Amino acid sequence: MAEKEPGLDPLSEDARLTSLDARLKQATDDEAIRSGAGRDKGDDDYRLGNRVLAELIGGMVGGALIGWVLDRLLGTSPWLLLTLLALGIVVAFRNIIRISNRRAK
C-alpha cells in the first residue's frame, strides 16, 4: 500500500560520493597496512610464546647435556651436570627477560 502512495522519489547516489567512499576506503586500508594494524596480532604472540619456550627448554637441556658429557669425560659426577644445568636456567631466564623488554617498546 505504501508503494502506491505519492511521494518523493529517492535520490540517486551521486557518482562523486561513490568515488569519495572508494578513495576513503583505499586510504584507510593503506594506512592500516603502513602502520601494521592490518596484521594478525595472534600470530606475533604465538611466535613470541614459542620463542620463550624454546629459550627455556634449550637452556636447560643444553646445560644438562653438556654437563653430563663433561661429567662422563672428567669423572666429576654430578657436579658439572648440576652446575651447567643451573647456568643454563640462568641464561634462559636472562634471554626471556631480554625478549620481553624488547617487545615492550
TrEMBL record:
Keywords: Hydrogen ion transport, Ion transport, Membrane, Transmembrane, Transmembrane helix, Transport. Belongs to the bacterial AtpI family. Pfam families: ATPase_gene1. A possible function for this protein is to guide the assembly of the membrane sector of the ATPase enzyme complex. InterPro entries: Atp1_alphaprobac, ATPase_put. It comes from the Bacteria. This is ATP synthase protein I. The chain crosses the membrane at residues 52-70, 76-97.
